[in-house]
Design a protein that fits this description.
The complex is a heterotrimer of chains A (313), B (96) and C (113). Chain B is mostly helical and 96 residues long. In chain B, 89% of the residues lie in helices and 0% in strands. Chain C has one domain (3-93): Helix Hairpins, CATH 1.10.287. Helix content of chain C is 70%, strand content 0%. Chain C contains three helices and no strands. The longest helix of chain C is centred in the last third of the chain and has 32 residues, at 62-93. The chains are: A mainly alpha (313), B mainly alpha (96), C mainly alpha (113). At the A-C interface, helix 1, helix 2, helix 3, helix 4 and helix 5 of A face helix 1, helix 2 and helix 3 of C.
Chain lengths: 313, 96, 113
Amino acid sequence: MSISTVFEIVLAAVVLGLAIWTTAVRDTYSATVGFVAYGLLVALVWVRLDAVDVALTEAAIGGGLGGVLLLTAAARLRDSGFTAAEAPGTVTKAAALTASVLTAASLAGAVLLLPDAAPTLAPKVIANAWATGMANPVTNVLMAFRSMDTMLEKVVLLLAIIGVWSLAPNDAWGGRPGPRHQADPDGVLVFLARLLPPIGIVVGIYILWTGANHPGGAFQGGAILASMWLLAIMAGLTDTPPVCRRWVRYILIAGPGVFLVVGLGGLWLGAAFLAYPPALAKPLIVGIEVAMTLTVAATLGLLLAGVPERSAR
Amino acid sequence: MSIGSDIITIAAVSAGAFFFLAGTVGLLRFPDTLTRLHALTKADNLGLGLVIAGLLPQADSLREGLKLVSIWLLGLLAGATVSQLIARTARQDEAR
Amino acid sequence: MSGVTVFGLSAALAVGLGLYGIITNPQPLRKIIAFNLLGSGVFLLFGVVGRRGAAAGIGNDPVPQALVITGVVVAFSATALAIALLLRLLRTAGSTSLGNGAPPSARPDASGF
């Protein structure tokens, strides 16, 4: 048993311990903090599984932005003194225990019985990488071989933001999401919000650009850009835009729109929907990725800003 | 040179791990928020710095070394800012 | 027992824990957290299957990785929508109880959180 296997066993044990603690602890705020820690450790698990792109996405979106989302919600719930609800009866608990034990046991059995000559699509992905000229196989799959999934995922993000906006109360319809944050202009938060975003924007664009040949890509870069925007909003340096503004909506549809246009272009000029002509594959993909990063950054930021609360006037 | 850089790496990373351990013990054992913050930030900044210093001999190129150092600087920035914010909130809660 | 198998078993346990948390915990925010736990366990199972499919010079099958990246973003947007619904329920009804109890009192829209 090598040292790396020991490390992996310890990591898995800590991750499981955090998962059990998150499920079992009484205080909701503690459960939220436990879940954020769990998300960051799972990113380490992804690195051990040799999936660095997924580790970046999990750390940025699952741990970072998801953590902000859950912590703000937990803080609001705690401050407003919500009423605790009734605990479920013994029958429900027993049934839930049975169901979860059965599910976990069957999944564990499936993991132990996985075939030894594991089926894999990696050779096919590597063999077809000439078509896009990019060296990162995950980006190839996301942007070329399964680009339909990525385009539809953009549409899902759009639907989520429409759902969040539709929850606005009548007097705040089309208004600015979230409260107006104010911070001491000489304080530490404003200092950080002035210092970090230029660095963060460079890092975000770098991760988008390097995603062609190294781990990275549009989602991870977009998440970093979104977090820099949110930092400036939270320090009060800028305010959330009213959601009725045109430019907000143009940015949100830029990603799926460009994707759709390229797809229809492929249908018209080439072989099939979303077919890239091999000579133009890389420029087209880069163009789509730039539009995607803008849209992902704006959508994630607006999803975190929340429901419109203040009127646009 | 490879043996020398490996020794530096092992020594520095072990020292960094010791500081992380000390910071965690301080977090668990110190009585209130401000002292716990002191333990965390002093130990973790020094610990992270030593770990990065230990990884520098293993870097392949100057660019990779600069990336490692910038990770340390960003970690310092984030840690310092967050601990200041927590300390101010703790002080306001005490004053209430 | 290799490290990958250990990760697979912990992923299965995370799925079980998430399922238990969704059914038994009465507070909606805890249900959302348990749902995310369940999703993270499922993604880890994808990762384990992909890791076993390492071939042709790369360490993890890229197709499950792409599916998981898409899944993480979609799960985040679903969580954001769920939290928006939860906060709206809190604002309108004054509590986050999902029970079928007495109708909520007409609480005026709060003047600030």
